[in-house]
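fwd from M.: "can u put these together and see what the complex looks like"

so here's what she sent:
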Amino acid sequence: MASATVLARPELTRESVSAAPQMPDVLPPVKARKGFIGFLRRNPTIAVGGGLLLIMLAIAVFAPLLWTVDPTALAPARRTREPSAMYWFGTDMLGRDVYSRVLYGARVSLLVGFSVAILSSVIGLAIGMVSGFIRWADSIVMRIMDGLMSIPPILLAIALMALTRGSVQNVIIAITIAEIPRVSRLVRGVVLSLREQPYVDAAVAAGTRTPVIIWRHILPNTLAPITVQATYICASAMIVEAILSFIGAGTPPIIPSWGNIMAEGRALWQVKPYIVFFPAIFLSITVLAVNLLGDGLRDALDPRMAKRL
Amino acid sequence: MALPGPRSGQPLLEVENLQTHFRTKDGVNRAVDGVSFHVNAGETVAIVGESGCGKSVTSMSILRLIPEPPGKIAGAIRFQGKDLLKLSDREMRQIRGNEISMIFQEPMTSLNPVLTVGRQIGETLRLHQGLSAREAEQKAIEMLTLVGIPEPARRVREYPHQLSGGMRQRVMIAIALACNPKLLIADEPTTALDVTIQAQILELMRDLKHRVGAAIVLITHDLGVVAEVAERVIVMYAGRKVEEAEVGPLFRTPRHPYTQGLLGSMPKLGSSLHGEETRLAEIPGLVPSLKAKIPGCVFATRCPHTTDLCRQVAPALEEKAPGHVAACHYALKEEALAA
Amino acid sequence: MFAYVVRRILATIPVMAIVALFVFSLLYIAPGDPAAVIAGDQATPQDVERIRASLGLDRPFLVRFGEWVFRILQGDLGVSIFTNLPVTTMIQQRLEPTFSLMILTLCLAVTIAVPMGVVAAWKQGTLIDRAVMGFAVMGFSVPVFVVGYLLAYVFALELDWLPVQGYTAFSNGLWPWLENLILPAIALGGVYIALIARITRATMLEVLQQDYIRTARAKGAGQRSILFLHALKNAAVPIVTVIGIGVALLIGGAVVTESVFAIPGLGRLTVDAILRRDYPVIQGVILLFSFIYVIVNLAIDLMYTLFDPRIRY
């Protein structure tokens, strides 16, 4: 029989048998990096985006300490000075120091960005959960969301702002309303797909109450996509705030926001481009930082989503 | 090295020390590590082994279908004397689908869902024989007739989703044979099909092989299929060739413990030779990780006869009988067996 | 097929109804007296009364909504508070520049972004791929008006190749028309290109993993044929969907781009209406843009069957 061909033969030694030739390495060995530094090296976008965002946060928080003057102080005698050792970013047409205004402007952008991200995530999460779990509510809520989603978000925010007096609070509310439909759709999609999962079925079959199922099974699984979505919302909210302020329907002009500084520099931009470009650079870098962070988080947290986008 | 030599002159395909490695996040996966074999013109050679043994990677490496990076193919693959690994992409494309063609395991996903069947068969002809669109469609209809698809003139304008699994595999065979290749590589061509369809497809392949005269490399884990169609068998384990023989000797006297295990785990009809209940043997344990270098025999972790020697020294492939090689220190040679 | 088209068209009615209801009720969502809000801070009580009467704010909500919808269906979007012109007329006067800008941007973006995404997917992980992805993240991060000013500064002010701002009607010739739109179209196209390039790359990466791509390679098909025939056609549905969704970005961006380049289009009309709180105009423009958006996406839905024979209605 087959196994008879193989017998233990004690006389075999290393020397008496022929060894297979060693195969060479075709590819260089791969080094696996570990720990926090390893994480950052594997996710350079998180490192760069997070780093830049931290710098911007520090600028916003410590603006008064960073050699700034009162950003609203008028000095008609020193209008539209070019950037110099005295006025690092120059002065605007009212003689205000652009450097100080830009640094303080970080506060408005970041406030709006973070507030909108948090508010629309929380509200969108609630709406998405409700429509993912309650059939009759789903059709109504989703019709409304479809309607809101067919209004381009910037127009929706503009329309809302047109009716209210400009204030940072109203800007946050308007952009939040414009962002909610997308988050709700995302959450609903995740909830519906999770409800199909066998372990959720099992929990339902075992008589687990719906709030417990949501808390234990659904919520933890929506957190990763929501976090990623929230960073993108933060980035887009900062842009929308700047757009609103730029066209005069956003933050009131007395508050130095990047959009406002650019709006004021518009009239002079062909002769004094620096008034527009300094806030533009800060805005772009901040939004870039948040977007990079979002991309990095997406790759790190949710490989499935990373494949899709 | 003692390899069964080609019967006459130069073999059609000669694979020498093939290594196909992949770069992954946590190390280099040595999916195929030093495999050598040859295929003569018109011959059917089967490569068998469990999933993950490197048999599919071997077949894909022959046509250089491994994406590089993250993969890397080394060694030599000589087809009619030319080393395929040294060809330019352009030269390689002229071989693919023309002189060497391939049939894949999943007929459901291997056809392009947005192109008509006729276009997909015709593409090969247009690429390699310079046919016009109209000529290619005519030839596609002929090919569909050849592989036994009814109403070919209608089917040629249909999309894959309108065909059953068996029909799609017939279309794949039509694509593969359209240019009369000298070598056909069939990677688990029947695995995804119903048993009755499997038999039909195998029958078709055997029939067409005689008509076209192509050599076949059949990749499978199904020893039943091997016994039915192959002339010579290569057994692979963990990216290495562990045994090779003509189909008769291999089934009759398997030398490598892994091959013995494979044959033991195969159900046989009316196999109760000794009148007692025969149990289906299984091979315990798991295939070792291919990311670490294994100093000794790759099968040592699962082999019932493992000794310290096995764990320390990787056995070379040795000719245990004429035309029968195995990589096992303890597999006896013919004369010892006779004695 | 026909039944499906009819069903899809009917399905847009509730969506548009919700848009209309939302646009109409905006005035009442806002805190305070809508007439006073519209009239602005310097208005006299008479102004407020006049606006109240002209909007019919003294009658029940649903009655007014019904009347309003009825009039819109007849093509009457009301009368501007500021100019006293019919909103329909004002919109008609502004249609050409906006449509020119949006259509040019759309064509430009699709012809640039799709090949970009395809090449990035093909060369995944290489420098080219990283450059495309870097460009995409920049496109998402640099606001339209910043790009606009930068382009205008470099190509109009410094190099003097193209006009700084303005618009010339198409009837004045192709080049004068195009000359004024090139910079705005590139500025507006940034985000859109980024969006399309990213989805193209992602979808192509997925498609290139598929078994049928391996089959095509095994047949000896060339790289170009694999990318653009075998893969891109399979990736078409998600890409086309995103092109449709992205029209929202174009509309929002057009409002800003027209301000930067002084293009007398619907975007400018919107901005002016907001600054003057000319509410009938704002409502009209939002309704129109939303309608366009819904129709574009409906058309794209119906186009799926062209790209994928498995989709049958």
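replying to her w this: Residues 35-301 of chain A form a domain with the MetI-like fold fold (CATH 1.10.3720.10).
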